[in-house]
Amino acid sequence: MSELQKLREAFRTALDLPADAPVDDLQYQDNEKWDSLAHMSLIATIEDEFSVMIDTDDVINLSSFSEAVRILGKYGVDINE
Amino acid sequence: MSVFTLPQAAKEAVLVKELSALTEHHRARSEPYARILAANGYSGASTVADLPWLPVRLFKNLELKSIPDDEVFKVLTSSGTTGEVSKIYLDKHAAAEQTRRLGATVQSVLGPKRLPMLLVDTKAMLKDRKSFSARGAGVLGMSTFGRDHVWALDNEGQVDLAAIRGFLEKHGDAPFLIFGFTFLVWLHLYEVARDNGLDLSNGILIHSGGWKKLIDQAVSPDEFRARLAGVGLTNVHNYYGMVEQIGTVFLEGPSGGSLYCPDFADVVVRDPQTWRELPPGEPGLLEVLSTLPTSYPGHVLLTEDLGVVHGIDDGDWPGKRFSVLGRLPRAEARGCSDTYREAA
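ok -> structure tokens follow
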């Protein structure tokens, strides 16, 4: 599975979305399944999936799929490879 | 990185400007607030203590917001002792900003890394994810700062000693975060640690929730701290905050005994008879100020709590340091909010 697919899967799992749900445009404040509980589960899923430890500021800033791509880049995970 | 950096004079210079601007911002956008200011004769402030305060209870009686209905993103509620409910309206900007500032405040003592986190509470509290209690919301907000969360209480609210032991075996050798409400920490962590010889010496405890139940058991804040030190827990930070100023927390400094104001917030203690500001050492009614409330006029609030300023620029961190002494007896607090209700 590509890194991009892994990240999409992480979002679908954590936010309890259907397997084919489009996630690339997801925003924290616009999706009702993405509440604060789901956010913690999303962070945990991403950390497990990519073996990274995300700092507090990045947990707070990770407010969209594209932010997740950018933040993972800081931790050396290139999603768009 | 810390948000506890400004000496009092520098802070007041910034705050009087920013909070005066916020007062005008809310006056222009909230009809009831404008009426209150007019009834009050407010015509500008030259000091922080001059700024016009609202009794916190007003948020239970009036719909106070400075944003149009279609920009309301979240409505926070808190039930008081009387069963009346405060309603706090946030737009997206205010919601994001409060999370960010709370994050910056807590990172002042925890640092940028998320630590393994022991929650002195029960997961059952979050069962209905559409409507958490204030306690649930507090736990959830704080859990952002942790990782590998373990709940110290089971679904029935009983101590889960195996879970606590498991957590300490895995994470007890390096710094870890403990969060819980003061009374639960006393009852379900301190006593359990003492009776079972648990080593909490790498823990950093953040706790809140009022001292009333502990005072009923004759446990003072000082004794709380001393007894926790007895089980190795010396890194302890109490905090004070309320839903009406969500995102702003006043945090206890490392040496204990005093709460400190982040750079974007302050406190004023007032005489409950004359409303005049009281000097350090004299207890009175606590007023809290913060630049965070931009979507509702909650930037200067008179609480129903008694407090005392212990000193200014003479503690662990710059600015005022203070304690919360408990609730004002209900009858005494009534006058001012009745006046406001008539004006509004």
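Chain B touches chain A through 22 residues (CB under 8 Å).
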